[in-house]
Amino acid sequence: MGTRQNRLDQLRAYSSSGYAMPLPAGHKFPMSKYAGVRFLVEQTGLPVLEPPRADWHLVERVHHLEYLKKLRFGTLNTKETRLLGFPWSEMLVERALRAAGGTLAAARDALNLGLGVNLAGGTHHAYPDHGEGFCVLNDVAIAALELLQTGLARILILDLDVHQGNGTAFIFQQDPRVFTISVHGERNYPFHKESSSLDIGLPDGVTDTTYLQMLEEQVLPVLEQFQPQIIFYLAGVDVLERDQFGRFALTLSGAKTRDTRVFQFCQNQGIPVVSLMAGGYNKHLENTIQAHANTVLAALEVFVQP
Length: 306
Ligand SMILES: [Zn+2]
What we know:
By secondary structure, this protein is of the alpha/beta class. The protein has helices at residues 3-8, 33-43, 56-59, 65-73, 78-84, 90-113, 139-149, 166-171, 208-226, 252-269, 285-303; strands at residues 13-15, 48-49, 115-119, 155-159, 178-185, 198-202, 230-234, 273-276.
């Protein structure tokens, strides 16, 4: 086996599942999905590592000091806490730093190996001055700015989570080095949408066939045109039927085909890709867990198996 196989042997994933924060009983956020996904990914033989903590100075390039101070000292007010959707705890902050560190580490893996995997991240609703929609820090923006700082010039963020990547779109609105694509439910949260470089708002009830056709015809050609040096892929699985916060109707198999097509495209074009979990809140937790694990399986099928 040649060098390519040797490099692929180094593939790994990062998981923040050890940093679960306390949530009140009945909270809608499926915190246990991270451990479930980690377990399924470990079954594939892919090593799963502790993510490093993102340095505060990298976080400060994206987020305002005033917001970060409130996060560090636990002084968010009631309105800010409600907007975020999580109660404050030290673990909330630690977890957000680990998730961002995992995304940056996975981005460096992608540049070295072709593929990087973070079993967390894709917290695209976080704005510079506040968190919202279960998103504390904008991990992709933190990682992207660091890559730009260290020499990259063209980055693409492909956000296929069912909700618009409003925070990310806002952060990079004026930055021609970063192309943001968001495919989302037009009638879904966030109700005030920002302008991504490309927004595709779809109606409720979208099925596999419609979705996959849209991906081939409207998304992949745009990726090809921009010729990015790296793609951050937010593989949100809240596109599945029976998601509590989604309105699409993709099947597990349709969602996996979506992921496979993205990874095949990246591999064919030789574009490094970072796989990020983003959202997934199915009425049946096991479907969310399986769909997130399927994203990693799809990536391994494309990158590792000939
Ligand atoms: Zn979402």
